[in-house]
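Worked example 3 (structure in, sequence out).
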């Protein structure tokens, strides 16, 4: 099956997380991003991360929760600034 741009972005984001965790060097990261960008199929994309551990669902849920919390806090700060200016 052909890979979409969203599929490629998801793989690049996973590579960023693995690089941040110290599983990949910057050179490995750059090489794999290049392969992901050129990938035409989902199998080619899967090969880019096949030797890396799969992310745990709890880890992903925690990250999504922290992102939502950050968005809520920024919204509250902006609302406070807006109200203070009025």
């Amino acid at each position: 099956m052909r890979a979409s741009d969203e599929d490629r972005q998801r793989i690049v984001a996973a590579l960023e997380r693995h690089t941040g965790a110290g599983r990949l060097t910057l050179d490995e990261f750059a090489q794999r991003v290049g392969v992901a960008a050129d990938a035409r199929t989902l199998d080619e994309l899967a090969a880019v991360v096949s030797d890396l551990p799969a992310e745990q669902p709890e880890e992903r849920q925690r990250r999504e929760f922290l992102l939502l919390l950050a968005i809520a806090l920024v919204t509250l700060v902006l609302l406070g600034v807006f109200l203070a200016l009025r």
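Notes: Residues 57-85 form the longest helix (29 residues). The chain has a mean pLDDT of 93.
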